[in-house]
Amino acid sequence: MKTTLDSSPDVSFVPNHIARRVGAEVQRRIDALKIGQKMQDLPEELWHKSFRFYVKEDPTRVGGPNLRMIRLDPSQPSLTVTAYIFNKFVHPYENRFITVCEAARLQGFPDEIEFRGTLTNTQLQVGNAVPVQLSRAIFESLYQQAKVFGFKGNLKALSLFSGAGGMDIGAEQTTGISTLVSLDNWKDACDTLRGFLKHKTNVVERDITLVSEPVRFWKHESETDNSPDLLYGGPPCQAFSQAGKQKGLEDSRGKMIFEFLRFVDSLSPAFFVMENVSNLKGVAGGKLYKQIIEKIDSLGYNCTVDLLLSADFGTPQLRRRLIFLGSKKEIGKIKMPVPTHNAKTENLTLFDVMPYTTTGEAFLNLTQASYSNVNMIQKI
Predict the structure, then answer these.
(1) Which CATH architecture fits 132-342?
(2) How far apart are the C-alpha atoms of 306 and 319, rounded to whole Å?
(3) Is-catalytic flag, 237?
């Protein structure tokens, strides 16, 4: 996806920038939407029958209308990007849903990355990723604090649950962090990350639960005898996400947090960064969160936890992520990064804070999307 502020490349050179054609009824809804409008702003005759039931007939309904479609506002950051926005987020100016390429820009991915696999898999890779700018801010802050604590040279890192590399690319863009190994069991995502990082990182495709000896794995794959200085990753969050069924630990993916902590226990890095969904604290009435914190403490780590808004760090998206920053107790405690962006437009020169990056800025100089010949099956 090579684009610059000075050129508009031919669309044939823009990977993952294909808009799916939709049926006539869905197209009428898209055509009628104005900037910032949602399904409930449309004339009722254009509502999907399931939406009409939810709004007017569902006896169990609690709260306001459910988001089914929105035309993005180019003057604002987008709402949270997930794997399910590709039949919900309408382009600010064009009468179509956004493409994988455009969603990747909202996640802060560099234009050079090409997502591999089927359309569904590329959508999942983008939607599941941690925003790159947020990751970079966390790693830059951590590295600067590590230097204060006496660490010299690059921090050698191991990435777990790497996916398409939102955290890995953020680390790669940070001076002072070298990710030697990235681990994930998703072939398409590994191919995506491997294609972008080239030979900078050993991207290993393997199920983490089958890695019985993390120390042996690390030494073999990193070709070093020293333990990693930093371990980072985002264990699968679908079991806790509001967008999913929220089965928590009943879902096998919900147990991956403890796989991450198993690697922390075995490898004993000086630092770790773990991210997850914003509502993790509320799972099982807070019991899971308490269990995680107690486990981290028992492993000998201080832990700083906070909910960070990605737009505060330059991402053109209002995505919140729960961040755990761990450091060995004998080292000290790591602080969260200081926001670099703000929604307010006045007095932004104070502390060099900049205005939020907008959807319009994210899509700047991106060529018009081509269209596939396959109709998208819509459920909106």
Answers:
(1) 3-Layer(aba) Sandwich (3.40)
(2) 14
(3) yes
